[in-house]
Amino acid sequence: MSRFNHTAKAHTVALSSSFTRHLLQLAMLGMAFVLLAALPVRAAEYKDISEVWSGAEAPAPPPLQSVSVDHTTTALLILDIEERTCNADRRPRCLETVPRIAALMDKARKAGMPVVYSLTTKGTRETILPPVTPENGDPIVQASVDKFLNTPLQTILEDLRVNAVIITGTAAHGAVLHTATGAAQRGLQVILPVDGLSASSLYIEQAALWLLHTGPATAQRTVLTRTADISIE
Prior knowledge:
Elements: H1 3-38, E1 67-69, E2 74-79, H2 92-111, E3 115-119, E4 140-142, H3 153-160, E5 164-170, H4 172-185, E6 189-193, E7 197-198, H5 202-214, E8 222-225, E9 230-232
Parallel strand pairs: 1-9, 2-3, 2-5, 3-4, 5-6, 5-7, 6-8
């Protein structure tokens, strides 16, 4: 065999050996990936809200503001202040809000501001509590929690040419929450006196206020205040 042939054969053997080693390395790497993929993956520790309920912390109270409104472009809404919804057994805090709502109502009437009422589905004009009794001609709508739904409330407010509503009543997580949201979605400014709404517990009042204060539909259109801090021009 010539020297050239011998050298070429040795070179071929070396290449073959290198290629074999490379294949073995690839095979071992592939097996490693297969083994890793077969290992159980530990999912991140997740607990739903019911499991971490006690860990939820109440946020700081939202800021309250003094408000001045124009009586010609603002309406006072008094929602569901009735015998069956506002009483010592079912919602005692509601009774504590009634004198405040009544004082605001008197101030609104003296300024010539329109006052609009709502009833629950089972309420009547006669079941509205006497301190905030409607006057002849005051509009009254009747619905479940959203007082815009299947009622003429939007038309009433449009006819009054108002661009803002002061919302009072009960329940905080019912008529107040849903009607305030409906008003904001219709482009109205919502003024919410915190001492003019109520629920069966402090937690519900707090939650309803926080939702209106931070909600995507209401945050930019809702002002929180107190009845005594509303001036009417």
